[in-house]
Amino acid sequence: MQKKFIMAGVMGWPIEHSRSPTIHNYWIKEHNINGAYGHFPVQPNHLEAAIDGLRALGLAGCNITIPHKVAAMKHVDWVDPKAQRIGAINTIVCKPDGMLCGFNHDGFGYIQSLYEAQPTWHASAGPVVMLGAGGASRSILVSLLDSGASEIRLLNRTQSKADELAAEFGPLVTAYPWSELNDTIEDCKLLVNTTSLGMQGQAPLEIDLSNLKSDALVSDIIYAPLETPLLAAAKARGNTTVNGLGMLLHQARPAFEAWFGVLPDVSQKLRNVVIASF
Question: Which residues lie across from 227 on neighbouring strands?
Fold first, then answer.
């Protein structure tokens, strides 16, 4: 008797650029699973019908990406408490009874990428400096706090957004003016860029790393390019650096397990396959 065919995918608009099918289909083949993962181009005005269609079609679930991560929350039956705190979901799991459950694994993927780069790293090691106050920063912020971070210094080019985020998640989160960027990093143990500065086609992040301690971990959630100007400068100083590819790969693991029943590993071979797709 043939094994049940399991189908999942990623909803977004546009969506063709997503590397999620490359990642999940690699694991499907690696674990000899009877299934597939595809691109689901869904316009915002069709989101509710598309999510309800998961149930109707008997799909295992899907990933949710830009611009649907916030709006999708109101179209599922249950949202994980951590995702509620973040205010967005990136994964929907369709239970056998048809119940749709929303999760956010972006923060998990980020934390795992740090451990991968520096196994001895711990969120409580010292101050964290976070650049950016958008959706990605929210998921990372929650996961850092849950991992034991005791001080997070938040800087954003639009000051009001940093103030709002700090007010929501304080007292361990404090907003600082963007103009104080070079001073706030002086004693930090983790510097993370969640802005688009340094991405292909965007202006580089202007920062002076001379105040940064050599044992500070420097991460950038951008993965195109794999080495942003920030990471190149930090690496040249001897700091351990982490690009955004690890976050992309690791956030996919718990979703794959929920849909296909196997918790996959992030191998160098998979990394090479994804890098080759850029």
Answer: none
The stretches of 39-89 forming alpha helices (DSSP H) are: 47-57, 81-86
Distance CA 19, CA 65 (A): 11
- Which residue out of 69, 74, 213, 269 is catalytically annotated? 69
d(CA 201, CA 204): 9
Would you call 3 a catalytic residue per the annotation? no
* Average pLDDT taken over every residue of the chain: 96
Task: Write the burial class of residue 253 (CB in 10 Å: 0-12 exposed, 13-18 middle, 19+ buried).
Answer: buried
Residue 69 CA to residue 135 CA, distance in Å, equals 9
> Residue 278: what pLDDT?
87
Q: What are 238-264's pLDDT values in tens digits?
A: 999 999 999 999 999 999 999 999 999
Tell me which H or E stretch contains 3: none
Angle 268-276/245-260 helices, nearest 10 degrees? 110
Token output for 180: 């104080």
Measure CA 113 to chain center.
10
Tokens of 200: 């292909």
Of 17 and 60, more confident: 60
> 104: which DSSP letter?
-
